[in-house]
Amino acid sequence: ANYGPNPICKGCLSCSKDNGCIRCQHKLFFFLRREGMRQYGECLHSCPSGYYGLRTPDMNRCSRCRIENCDSCFSRDFCTKCKTGFYSHRGRCFRGCPAGFAALEELMECVEGCEVGQWSEWGTCSRNNRTCGFKWGLETRTRQIVKKPAKDTIPCPTIAESRRCKMAMRHCPGGRRPAKTKDKKKKKKNLMERAQKQHSIFLATDKTSQ
Questions:
Q1: CA distances in angstroms from 65 to 87, 99, 116, 133, listed in the order given
Q2: Digit-coded pLDDT (tens) for 161-202
Q3: Terminus-to-terminus CA distance in the chain, angstroms?
Q4: Could you give all domains of the chain from N- to C-terminal order, each with its CATH number?
Q5: N or C: which terminus of the chain has fewer CB atoms within 10 Å of its end residue's CB?
Q6: Where residue 2 falls among pLDDT bands split at 50, 70, 90?
Q7: What pLDDT does 139 receive?
């Protein structure tokens, strides 16, 4: 029987009072909706989230996307939009982008990222362009950008980093010691001279009083 006036039968060629649409009009998609233990057919212009439209000579149907965490798909095995929090990459959905790809946040897609080479060896430990004269310095290593990202909005990872290191030689052979060390010695010498001077004045004053 055709229950045309019933809202559940909108777009149907044939409809059941209990099960809804059985056949749909041309160009519409048949979708079998489930609510608990009950299911009924609907005729839709486009398939709901998690389904894609499959056109066949017999009748167009809504088929479920078989890709995990997919919100809408082009076909059974190719996702076009992932669920919230997941990135789309080659028809699949990922919580984080695969190696070599970077996340494009505004589109929630994985695109080719910045490719860098291997780290170089750590450089010579130095400080103020000197390799001696201090106890601690810095050493640096670098790596080259092998391939720039497809989009300028994706930053490359760091290509240089430094770390604290201990100098191989605390004092420079045959050279002057750092000014800081020299200033300490000078300050100490001045204090000794002042102390000796004050002691001499004290002795002279003491003799006078006697």
A1: 16, 26, 36, 68
A2: 999 999 888 888 775 555 555 566 666 677 667 666 665 665
A3: 139
A4: 7-64 (2.10.220.10), 70-112 (2.10.220.10), 116-173+183-209 (no CATH)
A5: C
A6: very low
A7: 93
